[in-house]
UniProtKB/TrEMBL annotation:
<keyword id="KW-0234">DNA repair</keyword>
<dbReference type="InterPro" id="IPR012340">
    <property type="entry name" value="NA-bd_OB-fold"/>
</dbReference>
<dbReference type="GO" id="GO:0003677">
    <property type="term" value="F:DNA binding"/>
</dbReference>
<keyword id="KW-0413">Isomerase</keyword>
<dbReference type="InterPro" id="IPR045562">
    <property type="entry name" value="RecG_dom3_C"/>
</dbReference>
<dbReference type="InterPro" id="IPR001650">
    <property type="entry name" value="Helicase_C-like"/>
</dbReference>
<keyword id="KW-0233">DNA recombination</keyword>
<dbReference type="Pfam" id="PF17191">
    <property type="entry name" value="RecG_wedge"/>
</dbReference>
<keyword id="KW-0238">DNA-binding</keyword>
<dbReference type="GO" id="GO:0043138">
    <property type="term" value="F:3'-5' DNA helicase activity"/>
</dbReference>
<dbReference type="GO" id="GO:0005524">
    <property type="term" value="F:ATP binding"/>
</dbReference>
<dbReference type="InterPro" id="IPR033454">
    <property type="entry name" value="RecG_wedge"/>
</dbReference>
<dbReference type="Pfam" id="PF00270">
    <property type="entry name" value="DEAD"/>
</dbReference>
<dbReference type="InterPro" id="IPR011545">
    <property type="entry name" value="DEAD/DEAH_box_helicase_dom"/>
</dbReference>
<comment type="similarity">
    <text>Belongs to the helicase family. RecG subfamily.</text>
</comment>
<dbReference type="Pfam" id="PF00271">
    <property type="entry name" value="Helicase_C"/>
</dbReference>
<dbReference type="GO" id="GO:0006310">
    <property type="term" value="P:DNA recombination"/>
</dbReference>
Length: 697
């Protein structure tokens, strides 16, 4: 049976080798299974006929039946057009063609009855439709058709005469052949509990819906099934890992208690305490920890990471902390060194620029077990970096590392996998976290340390420049420092760098009394460090920079951020940038500068920033605006291989599907019960590498 859906599409009537090659290349459709799951993205309503008298220009597409009274060719050269005079009992209108005139002219017969479909436009008192679809009125179409599917296509396919109609015809052929081979993939109990129609009915109605109601039911069924299998795969992975992966048991809290009583620099928030409890429970459970720690910029994730390292070090193990950039690795190192020194815990930094002699020392100290904590970049993944007993690996800003890179770190301990803590300051919406990291346990730090005031965010237009400059002057006079950020977007780096330099010049002109730093990605590391040091020490009052300051620059005295061309940034990036201020006890400000002309999406982004400081609210809005692929770079990594579900809109459905998957695995982890055989069959028909278990193959 699976053999049928693995058949190459070239054997389908109306396809053949040439069309098949085009569909392979342009839409990645290779088999019957791929084709049947190429779902329409919208539908044209052919269920109703309008009369000419009922037309108005706000209507998207309309269907009219009438008689062709006559036709004529008007104009000459490239202005030549074919006009058909079309009438029904209520009035008359024009049908107009500018291309393919001769071919259409041969087909149209004055006096014959036709069905015309297209977008109406008004000229004076007259309506016309440009390039309508026209077919002779017959017994089969005189009472209206159905909802016509419109399929995703590429420009290249259209030029090769493969349009949505062609795909529709091919799909009809396939559904006729496939109808009796579509098997059910969800247990009857789940279908009943969630009011879902059978799989076969869903597939027929997603392509050629008999009514709006059936279309809605088909979408609901296919979305639910897809999300159910995504969750089932993740939960099954988690179960397997918990069974197979034993973890070292860490329960010696001596160093932790000492740190709490003697060296903790500030009281922990309740959220931090809760997260530490969750992690400590994992570390002493005997099962390998795999936990995601989410916390907004400045919420104190690093100190939580360090406290957890103390438990591992107390119990005789070593720890690694991997960060995506040298700046960030150095910052973690400096931040943790002062605590490690007080506690007499050996700590080292390993990055691409660590000198050879220093590396050798680090490698030896690691292998002997003398070095307890190693902080670094990708350099930690190199072959020669060997630990004596790696017990805890922490990965910071984990979405910047591939899965393969992370797993390399886990393999640094041959006898037993180290515990893994993945940290991110990018707030991930619940639905996305459940789908991307459904096999991880999730902890959230959702409050800021005491004494931090929320950052005030203001949106200003370029016309308010003088007013904004005066505000910056007042802030600097009061002893504060200012970041001014310009977008640097890859495609037009030359143009943007000029934009940054122009910005630097105009800031220097507007504030001749203040020293101004500049920072961008094209500078050499030592030049960057020099500028950062000048700013951090207060020698310069303003820093003009690109988004290189987004990650890891911590200057508590910098309390104002101006973001130029704020409409050119994504929401999560704006939020990350804003997190660079508000590090001290003073009131901080973020000023978003834009042109007056803004797209609808840009307006929503800016309003969201002004309205809230909550990273999770911002991430939810971002998900709705941009979709999951852009948000986490998952489009490229193939993590979200979704065919029909939409994480921005289908959150509640995802929750229900996850609950059903949990219930099923609790009741029958090996899927041995007869009523779950449909699920077992579906999973066993997958390729081992398949991400989306709901696919037909």
């Amino acid at each position: 049976m699976t053999g049928f859906f693995d058949t190459s599409i070239e054997y389908l009537k109306g396809v053949g080798p040439q069309r098949a090659a085009m569909l392979n290349k342009e839409l990645q459709i290779f088999t019957y299974g791929d084709l049947i799951q190429h779902y329409p993205f919208r539908y044209e309503d052919r269920t109703k006929f309008y009369t000419i008298k009922e037309l108005n220009e706000d209507m998207p597409f309309v269907q009219i039946k009438g008689v062709l009274k006559g036709k004529e060719l008007v104009g000459a050269g490239f202005k030549k057009r074919l006009v058909g005079y079309f009438a029904d009992d209520s009035g008359e209108m024009e049908l107009v063609w500018f291309q393919g005139i001769n071919w259409i002219n041969d087909k149209l017969k004055p006096g014959a009855a036709y069905v015309a479909f297209g977008k109406p436009a008004r000229f004076g008192n007259f309506f016309s439709i440009a390039h309508p679809e026209v077919e002779p009125l017959t017994v089969s179409n005189e009472n209206g058709g159905f909802l016509h599917p419109v399929y995703p296509l590429s420009e290249k396919l259209r030029t090769r005469k493969i349009d949505s109609k062609t795909l529709s015809r091919i799909m009809q052929q396939l559904l006729t052949l496939a109808e009796n081979r579509i098997r059910e993939t969800l247990p009857v109990s789940i279908q009943k509990a969630n009011h879902l129609i059978p799989k076969k009915e869903a597939l027929l109605n997603i392509h050629f819906p008999k009514s709006h109601e059936l279309l809605a039911q088909a979408r609901q069924r296919l979305k639910f099934e897809e999300l159910f299998y995504v969750q089932l795969r993740l939960l099954k992975m988690k179960l397997i890992r918990q069974e197979k992966m034993r973890g070292q048991v860490f329960q010696d809290a001596t160093l932790l208690t000492k740190f709490y009583h003697e060296h903790l620099p500030f009281p922990l928030t309740n959220a931090q305490k809760k997260v530490i409890k969750e992690i400590y429970a994992d570390l002493k459970s005997g099962q390998q920890m795999n936990r995601l720690l989410q916390g907004d910029v400045g919420s104190g994730k690093t100190i939580v990471g360090f406290i957890c390292m103390l438990v591992a070090v107390s119990s005789g193990a070593q720890c690694a902390l991997m960060a995506p950039t040298e700046i960030l690795a150095q910052q973690h190192y400096k931040g943790l060194q002062r605590y490690a020194d007080k506690m007499s815990i050996p700590l080292a930094l390993l990055t691409g620029s660590t000198k050879k002699a220093e590396r050798k020392k680090i490698h030896e100290a690691l292998q002997s077990g003398e070095l307890k904590i190693l902080i670094g970049t990708h350099a930690l993944l190199e072959e020669e970096v060997q630990f004596r007993n790696l017990g805890l690996s922490i990965v910071d800003e984990q979405h910047r590392f591939g899965v393969a890179q992370r797993s390399k770190l886990w393999q640094k301990n041959e006898s037993v996998y180290p515990h893994v803590l993945v940290m991110t300051a990018t707030p991930i919406p619940r639905t996305l976290a459940m789908t991307l990291y459904g096999d991880l346990d999730i902890s959230v730090i959702d409050e800021l340390p005491a004494g931090r005031k929320p950052i005030k965010t203001i949106h200003k237009f370029d016309a308010h420049r003088l007013q904004v400059n005066q505000f910056l002057r007042d802030q600097v006079e009061a002893g504060r420092q200012v970041y001014i950020v310009y977008p640097l977007i890859e495609e037009s780096e030359k143009l943007d760098l000029k934009h940054l330099m122009d910005g630097y010049e105009s800031v220097s002109r507007a504030f001749p009394d203040y020293a101004v730093s500049i920072l961008h990605g094209k500078m050499k590391p030592e030049a960057k460090d020099y500028e950062m040091k000048r700013f951090a020490s207060g020698e310069t009052k303003m820093m003009v920079a690109t988004t290189v300051i987004e990650v890891g620059v911590d200057v508590p005295n910098a309390s104002v951020m101006v973001i130029e061309n704020a409409e050119r940034f994504g929401l999560s990036q704006l939020h990350q940038l804003r997190g660079r201020v508000g590090r001290g006890a003073e009131q901080s400000y973020c000023i978003l500068m834009t042109d007056v002309k803004l797209s609808a999406d840009s307006k929503v982004r800016l309003q969201t920033m002004v309205k809230t400081n909550n990273g999770f609210d911002i991430a939810e809005t971002d998900l709705k605006l941009r979709g999951p692929g852009d948000l986490m770079g998952t489009q490229q990594s193939g993590v979200l291989d979704l065919l029909i579900a939409d994480l921005g809109k289908d959150g509640p459905l995802l929750q229900t599907a996850r609950e059903e998957a949990i219930k099923l695995l609790k009741d029958d982890p090996e899927l041995e019960k007869p009523e779950h055989s449909v699920v077992k069959t579906q999973i066993e028909s997958r390729r081992p590498s398949a991400m989306n278990w709901s696919r037909i193959s």
